[in-house]
UniProtKB/TrEMBL annotation:
Molecular function (Gene Ontology), one example: phosphorelay sensor kinase activity
Catalytic activity: ATP + protein L-histidine = ADP + protein N-phospho-L-histidine
Classification via Pfam families: HATPase_c, HisKA
Protein name in the entry: histidine kinase
Amino acid sequence: MASTSPTPSERTAHLCAEAALFMRDHVLSRVSHDLRSPLNAIHSWAYVLERKIDSADAAALRALAGIRTGVEQQVQLLETLVDTTRAETRKLHIERAPFALDALTGETVDDARRALADARGVNLAVRGGPTGATLDAGRERIGQALWLMLAFATEASTPGAAISLDVSVTATAAQFEVHWQANCVALADETLPHLFEVFARAQARELQDAGRSPWVLALCQRVAEAHGGRFEARPLVEGEAASLTLNVPASGT
């Protein structure tokens, strides 16, 4: 039986699921990292206290042993939790092959329009094309990253806003830049249609540390890293210019 192509709604659901999967694993990694430092400190201080306590005080020694055991169990639990849940995303699968860049860009913009932009009345426009370029990279993953960038920009835009996808190609790299005017209020407006879950939208409104991206964009970061490229997100500031940039080497390394 011949396979059928996914419908637009099925593709949107798949893209949202991929974004949520990588965001979940990013959050788990952050939580694991943030918890390890205090747990390690507790473990170290327990040994310091052990040397200070009278060896004849059996109750105190048992209490310290219990503290160390509890910490070790918590660390093991973190390792098991993160290792198990990240099994799907630990190694990002890239099927690298040459593909026409303009075709992918057009398809991705159409997907983003159908997914949310049309419902919001947001205008998506491609600038810098057609490039006529061929990119040697993972077509599916690049498309997912571009779609997520456009979807995020749409989520953080007022109805009727304009978003541009600038595409530029040099001898060494292809660069994709999404530009728009940030509207953080739109992320929390439940009267508007949305793609991302409430948690993801709420976190995106928080002030990001330097060099950090909203968690929902974790897939974009992983796609960039898998290709030896880079991903950057300008912090969202209400009413100011916002941008997302994906830079991918022009050929495999």
